[in-house]
Structures are given as structure tokens and as C-alpha cells.
Amino acid sequence: MSTKHAFDAIILGGGHNGLAAAAYLSRAGRKVLLLEKLDRPGGAAVSAEAFDGVGAWLSRYSYLVSLLPRQIIDDLGLRITLARRRYSSYTPDPADPRRGLLIDNDDDAATAASFAAVGAPEGEFRAFSDFYAGCGRLTRALWPTMTDPLPTRSAAKRLAALAGAEDAWEAMVERPVGEAISRALGHDLVRGVVLTDALIGTFARAGDTDLQQNICFLYHLIGGGTGDWDVPVGGMGAVSGELERAAREAGALILTSAEATSVRAGGVVGYRHDGADHTVSAPWVLANVAPVVLDRLRSAGEAGPGTARTGSPHGTQNPNHLREGAQVKVNLLLKRLPRLLDDTVSPEAAFGGTFHINETWAQLDAAYLGAAAGEVPDPLPCEIYCHSLTDPSILSPELQASGAQTLTVFGLHVPDRLVTAANNDVRRAELQAAVLRSLNSVLAEPVEDLLLTGPDGQPCIETKTTLDIERAVGMPRGNIFHGGLDWPFAEDDTPLDTPARRWGVETDDPHLLLCGSGARRGGAVSAIGGHNAAMAVLEAEGSGR
Question: Could you give the residue ranges of the DSSP H alpha helices within 85-196?
């Protein structure tokens, strides 16, 4: 007996990936319901007036865009502008913060001079450039596969060989990437600048044999094949807003303040909305929630709350999905950019790219060891982005005229194990102080003196721990990738006998798919997880490309 469903597909979670999946399926003529527990879609890819009444809209949780394919932008007709930053990074020398390494994308001679100024050995800039050129041959070869069915490891390796990237494959895929970095580069600060690409949101060391740092490194560099990280004009909310527009215009029904409460076999979803419990069904359910969260929903639907499922390759039985987040995020609004101890570089140049602080090779390893021992690293490695330099539109005209600027800080090596419900408030204050202390170590004036104040008289600074992030946007243990990252290819012995498996979005239920960051090739603001889940549905129904 056939079952009549109210929808063709139900999507759990209205983050950017869920919106992308809704747009693709709706454009293909499917009747789609998207359930979002918050009062607006976008998930972590949103802009927010973090400081009430001030007139600054910050990208609150996710900052930059690299992995969003042009194909998806074109397919969905997204009106998105991504602004390229002239400067790649600036890194003060912690041994003498009156000097620093400025990497200028438009001026190799100036960059080479900056390498010399921090005491890098002769030839270090050339070695640095050659190292990334080799990585680029690999990422350009693999990038087009991200929106195709999964290649196998052997097929991906053949693509690398055809691109002349055999050495990069060995360095980035087969061996701990720290070995290649330390072999190619000799200067502690330069090595650290490279290593940070492997550590964003990943609690790892350069030489770890599980290679999580390698996968993070690959994803950091693969975007567009170039690894460029761009500023979304209008803030991250402009990206999720365009995806929402595309989904609504295609006919998707997006229900906000609607929290999924259970998922049962046969595509039956329970949710709560307007103070009442509801049930809806569809032949396809796409989960834009973390795999661990999906596992809880399935337990609630089939085995009772709190009962663990067994045998699920994409639930709590997969240790990779239990990996903790490892960061603290701090947003600041300043009267102006601070002056640097290094007076050879303008603040506009230093903050025009990624501003690295206390991230030498040795400092990163010491910070990891301290955090692993249960301590907040001191000094705390930090990366800072000033979006308002590239995109002043996120500030009100009054703030723009006053010279105000935003800073968003990503503190590394702050694993979730350091934070509990009992100590969260104290730990948040401790981490905020550590971030400010780290930043002030390279400034000619205390950054606290430059903080704007809101109408309530409070300084414009907010700090988010891993627990705060989990509570706000549902990322278990504050993991910004919904768990550990996976290689963007399948092992040679992996069955690829269904559309869901071929697209890397499968669970143990053939009609329940992952469409978020927890899918293979998920992570960061990319919409790839949503695209690939939609392609799996359409292929299974015989209408895929």
C-alpha cells in the first residue's frame, strides 16, 4: 500500500546548506518543507547586530568565504559579491613585535623584503612560494570534484599525478603535513604562518598521525583551487540571505521557530511550532544538523529519548563525529584601528588580511600541549579579521564617518574540554582576557581604550566559547565542522553503489541523508553539502544530472 506524503522532501535545519538543498530541490519541481528552530534562517552563516543600537552588523560565527563554488552561485542565481583582500597576512614577531611579516599578494618584492626583516634565512620566501605553488597544483586538480560524485582515493591520486602534484599528494595526504612544512621552511615564524592553515577549528599537532590537521589544511587551501578567502560584501548574512531568497522563490516552504523533535523510519518527522507538536512526512529527509544531533532525533523517534542507536555510520557510533571544537570567538567594535608596535606597517595593511598573533611553530605546539593539560594557552594564538576595511557597508554611515572598525578574533587551541556548564561564565571571561592580552602584546596602545560603547554604556565586545556556540547554533561541542573533517574522496574499498554513497551524504537509512557540514566534503560556508544531498535525491529519482 502506498503512503501519501505531504512533501517530497523535509529538510532539518535552515543553515546555508539546508537552504541550498531546498533551493535545488524546489527548482527541480519538488515540494520542500524546511524546518528551522531559530527565528530566522542562516544558522551560523548570519550577520547580527551584536551590540544593540550601535549600527554594526557583524558576521558573528563564520567570517570569510572560500569554498562556495561558482557553479552553485550560478546555478541558483545568487547575487553575492565576494571581495578579495590585497594582503594575505601580517604576523608580528613575538620576539620583537616592532617587526613583522607582511605578505602582500600584489607585491612580491615587498613580501621578500618583509621575510628578510624578520630574520628569515635567504631563500625562505622562494621556498614559501614554491611550497604553496606545489599545494596549488593539487588543490586545482581536486577542486572540480567537490560538486561531482566522490572520486576514490586512487582516482584522486591519478588527478594529482596528471597535474604534476605527486609531491604535494604525499605531503598533504599520505604523511603528517608538519613534516613537509618543517622540511621546506626553516624559520619558526614562517613555519607557524603555514601551520595555522592546518589548525583552524581543529585541535591537533603538526605531526599527528590521524592526519586531521592534513584534512583541515587541504580544505583551507582547496577553495576555488586557489585557497583565497574572501569577504562577503554585506556580511555573511548576505550569503545566507541570497540562499533563502533562491529557496523561497523556487517554492520551498521555510518554517522558522520550528524545532525538529524526532525522526522516525519512513520519513516521519516530529517538530514543535507555535507551542504545539506536529508530525509531517516525506519520502526524503535531509539533515542539515550535525550527525550527533541527528542521532538524538532518531533515538527520540524510534528508541526513546537517550537510547543510543547502533550500527549507524553517521551517528554517535562514528568517533569522528564526536570530535570537539577548539576555538574561542571574540567580536569587537573599535573607534579606530589600533597603532602597532611595528611602525613600518600601517594598521590598514596589517589588518587588511589575516592578522596572526603568537602563532609561531613553537608557540602553536606549546599552546596545544598547555590546552591538552587542561590550561588556557598563554600566550593564546589568535587570528584577527577586519571585515569593515574591505566592506564598510556593514557599518552605519555614522560609524563609517567616525572611522570605526570591526575586529573578529578566532582564538586557536581552546578545546571544548576546557569549558563546562559550571565554569562557562568564568571561562568566557578568562578567555576574553587572554585574547586581549595576546592582542595587546603587539599593539602600541591597549585595545580596551579603543572599544566603542553602546547605548547601555557597555563596551562593544562579545566572546563566544564552544559551549556558547553549541547553545546558539547547535554545533555539538562547539565544533564548527559538525565533527571531524573527512577526505574529499572515498577509500578504494568503500561501497559507492547508491546515489547517497556516491555523493557522500549517506546514513544507514537510504532515504535519510546528510546535507550539512557533517556530510563528506562539508565544513565552512560552501553550500556543497546541500548541493550534493540534493543531487543524490535527484539521481535516485532518475532526474539528476
Answer: 108-117, 124-142, 153-162, 166-169, 177-184, 188-195
